[in-house]
Amino acid sequence: MNRFGSLCCITLLLGIADSTWGQDAKADDSFGPVVPKARAVSSQPVHPVLIHNEHGPLTRVVVEVTEGEEAVAKSFVFQLDGTDDLGDLESLTLFSTGDKEEFSSATPIGEPAKPAKTVTFRGERVLNAGKNVFWLSCRLKPTADLAHRVAATCRSIKTTAGELTPRDDSPGERHRIGIALRKHKDDGVHTYRIPALATSAKGAMLCVYDMRRRMGRDLQEDIDIGLSRSTDGGQNWEPVRVIMDMGEYGGLPQEQNGCSDPGLIVDRQTGEIFCFAVWMNGKPGKHQWNDDGSEPGFEIGKSAQFLMVRSKDDGLTWSKPENLTRKLKQEAWWLLAPSPQQGINLPDGTLVMPVEGRDGRDALSTFATIMISRDHGATWTVGKPAFSGGNECQAAQLGDGSIMLNMRNDHERFRAVFVTKDLGQTWQPHATNRNTLIEPNCNGSLLRVDYESEGMKKHVLLFANPHTQQGRTHHTIQLSFDDGRTWPKSHHLLLDEGRGAGYPSLTRIDDRHVGIVYEGSQSHLVFEKFALDELLKR
């Protein structure tokens, strides 16, 4: 598997190299073999470096000193030969994090440096027995090219015990450049979560998300739906627009009128854009997915409400919220909500939007399905539940015209996958249902991409999620060339192996590019851009 973003972690023991350097320990005629005092081990966790972040950790160096040894680090030399364009970088800084391997900017070593092929940091640092951790970090310019990579390798460390030459066990690994689309405390908002990404009919990229104003928790809380918009393929994003805010409806405070889990669909024939979200009124301390956080019926204040706003000017302005609850939700259901993903257009103009809900009080009384519109969003019809015990989902049309629904599965840590040939009236399990695509119970993203190869029309499915059953780490894109029956490891792209909240959303940017927003380890919302050729030819 090729991995593009990387960290370089180098462990050094001061003294003579042992066999991990590819050298044998020397023998002494009188005293026998000399005990090795130095070795080098490198590990390379993957993540992007992000525009708008103050710090972009590049290289982690762990200098390990044996007990009883004394040394002081004098200088560190790094080479940036693998960086595509040094002009993408604003500055470089070296930090000490003591014996902690996690990045921290609390203790800089020496002065920040200007980008160059070879960069030296000078400044004395006592090396204690055990681990001594250092990080090289970069700050990117706002103009850094999203198609470029950044790489830095530690070449030497001068100490009072001699000069050390680190071994790089993973040469050629490089960091992708991305964008910190939304961060903690941007615009005074505590937490940004639950992104849904789409591309308008005119080519603008639209990302909607939760603006969790006071704290990181989900509903019920003071949460509005925000929108970020880009008209240049994701390089620059306009200031945030708040497109759904229920204020103090019913005389209740903002924290009892939260909106969450936005979903988007673009009508490619009319250009109109629809955004859906779930609204809770009252019920402080409750959650719409748990117990009586939402109840049967339609009443505001008891049942969570299904809201919609729309834009007819490419996402610049939006209508006031329209309540669709009585039109869409069955009275016996405890909840109906949009899935926080992008909907799709069928060739005949039918709009297909994934939705989710609860038909009972128990934890596994959840379901996923689709709703459709044949009249450009004037009316919507909700299908039959595809799967019980699943919720967040995304739809894609397969080669035979059927619709695949790929779902978060609450039963076990495999994705649930069902297919319908009649727009959600009946469903059949796919061959990979609950046995192929692993997950940690988290939202995922499925996208069909059509392309031409050697004069032939083809399509591929892209799937993104945290590719693990243990936690929301290893954010990965996978490709399937056979309508989801197989997902070859040769076409897995690891984006970020660090811990984030997951929740990816994919979109086709233009004929040659795909974009993703996900909740990664380096920012609340991370945007990355990929050339389609790169994904197809891995």
Would you give an account of this structure?
With 538 residues, the chain is mainly beta. The strands form nine sheets. A six-stranded mixed sheet has the order 4-1-6-11-8-9, with no helix packed on it. Strands 5, 12, 15, 38, 39 and 40 form a six-stranded mixed sheet that branches. β25 (344-345) and β26 (351-358) form a beta hairpin. Among the domains are: 8-24 and 34-178, Immunoglobulin-like (Sandwich); 183-332, Neuraminidase (6 Propeller), CATH 2.120.10.10. It is 2% helix and 46% strand. It is globular and about 75 Å long.
Helix content: under 10%
- Gap between N and C termini, in Å? 9 Å
CATH C-level label of one domain: Mainly Beta
At the fold tier of CATH, the topology name of one domain is Immunoglobulin-like
Q: Give the C-alpha Rg.
A: 26 Å
| Stretches with pLDDT under 50, minimum 5 residues | 1-43
Shape: globular
Number of helices: 2
Total E-strand runs: 40
Average pLDDT: 91
Decide which structural class fits the backbone. Answer: mainly beta
Supply the CATH architecture of one domain. Sandwich
Strand order of the largest sheet: 4-1-6-11-8-9
Query: What proportion strand?
Result: over 45%
Largest sheet: 6 strands, mixed
